[in-house]
């Protein structure tokens, strides 16, 4: 950690989230290469200095008053508003989430550029990042920076255990290793990035062990406002440090701010749809209409219920899930509580999630001021096929919940909950992506090529969930870490 802002570096990494911490560790491994990692949120320099709420896997430090997140307003559907919460601290959203660490399925990579991102090419990087505490063999790693464990047996809460049993009794197959390429649709324990009872983000697993490197500067509480260009070449970044606007020259810039902030930074830097840029007074550097378009997330309907039995302390927010085709059913252990309208009754929710939606939204600038929130439009269920799939999934979820009610582990909150009301409970999984998607050509709406370099300019790369081409059939955290492992090779190989 340092308070000194360098004037010039070889590589500037913007955003110390799940991808940024990995890249900082791997790219600073060469002593002759200077690297600066910049994060707008706070930081810490050791495990002892890490805030305890970031280590506790049983806590989600994202509620009202949480100090390690940034909040955005998003519109799920016309007139239906939600709050988006993203991590703003070393480790990013991976430092505050529910420790869900499930890999994308092999078929998820079919639409990625196959010369670099086929499943056979990414599997070694999935293995390299993990220390799997339950499975070995050719599909798993045993010595990586991120521990991966699954709760089973006595570690399951009564709700998780009964849900597991109910799914098996209903005829769904047992799926004990959801990170295996051969995993099938079924019910099984959730792989979690937990080691020695602690949430292990990439800040802890990758970054803290290398903070001693003299060629690595980690700057927290530092906001990057835009990338700087000389014609079509990126030459540095503009930052606000202690209220003072400064510049850092860099031979290469890597954006790792996530689906919202990376897209917003590109737009503020003059890269995006020319019409949109001109509307907010930003000079055009490169015309890339795909910036901010193609936005996706996992729509989630929460069916309310009331738990009747106590839980187990220090367990992750999600221990067991059921996957069926493009749907994921979740019995949360964390207190995702909500008030039943008109009753004042506090209940939990059973998550029904559409994992491969077709509907796409957008992220746009409201003006060129980085202090002003962007406009985020999900356009959830705009596709009739999405609406139909969610409708049918909610009916299945309601039947599964009825099975749990029969065991006595939960009570129904509203027995008249029907498929006609499911949109009232629509929310989001906070799995944002696709705003700067990877592809073969900017003419097809892509923003980066197969080596993560931004089209139309040189010296600028993106490595985060914003470049994922289409929704993943599992949550994105493990896949984003893998992407950073993979992309580090491309950045090192690229000429400076």
Sequence-ordered SSE layout with sheet pairings:
Layout: E1 8-14, H1 18-27, E2 35-38, H2 52-55, E3 69-77, E4 80-87, H3 114-117, H4 119-129, E5 130-132, E6 146-148, H5 158-169, E7 187-189, E8 194-195, E9 198-199, H6 202-207, E10 216-219, E11 222-230, E12 233-241, E13 244-255, H7 258-268, E14 271-272, H8 274-279, E15 286-287, E16 293-295, E17 299-307, E18 318-324, E19 327-332, E20 338-339, E21 346-354, E22 361-364, E23 375-377, H9 384-407, E24 410-412, E25 426-428, E26 460-462, H10 477-493
Parallel strand pairs: 1-2, 1-13, 2-10, 3-23, 5-6, 13-26, 14-15
Antiparallel strand pairs: 3-4, 7-18, 8-9, 11-12, 12-13, 16-22, 17-21, 17-24, 17-25, 18-19, 19-21, 20-21, 22-23
Helix pairs in contact: 1-10, 4-10, 5-9
Protein name: Mycofactocin system GMC family oxidoreductase MftG
Enzyme class: oxidoreductase
GO molecular function, one term: oxidoreductase activity
Outline the structure in words.
The protein is α/β, with parallel strands linked by helices and 496 residues long. The chain contains 10 helices and 26 strands. The chain has helices at residues 18-27, 52-55, 114-117, 119-129, 158-169, 202-207, 258-268, 274-279, 384-407, 477-493; strands at 8-14, 35-38, 69-77, 80-87, 130-132, 146-148, 187-189, 194-195, 198-199, 216-219, 222-230, 233-241, 244-255, 271-272, 286-287, 293-295, 299-307, 318-324, 327-332, 338-339, 346-354, 361-364, 375-377, 410-412, 426-428, 460-462. The strands form 6 sheets. Strands 7, 17, 18, 19, 20, 21, 24 and 25 form an 8-stranded antiparallel sheet that branches. Strand 1 (8-14), helix 1 (18-27) and strand 2 (35-38) form a beta-alpha-beta unit. The longest helix is centred in the last third of the chain and has 24 residues, at 384-407. The protein is globular and about 65 Å long. Mean pLDDT is 92; it is low at 337-344.
